[in-house]
Design goal:
mainly alpha; single chain
């Protein structure tokens, strides 16, 4: 899932993070660590792989949470 620059929540969070970094004097050394609003074509393959792994992890996480809940409720 790519970031949506039209998403108002995303824009508000981005503005907040940028403002704090600028006010604290850390913006110049930290700006490269922030996610760009414009997707980088060079990252497309790794982004797709990460998305695939994330989707797989969701199903595994749900199973583990259900198992944990069963154990806790039976205890």
């Amino acid at each position: 899932m790519l970031l949506q620059s039209s998403d108002s929540t995303f824009l508000i969070k981005r503005f907040f993070v940028y403002s704090i970094l600028k006010l604290s004097g850390h913006f110049e050394k930290m700006k490269e660590l922030l996610v760009s609003e414009i997707p980088n074509p060079k990252c497309m393959d790794s982004n797709q792989k990460l998305k695939s792994l994330y989707d797989e992890a969701i199903a595994i996480a749900v199973k583990l949470i259900l198992i944990f809940a069963e154990k806790v409720l039976l205890f």
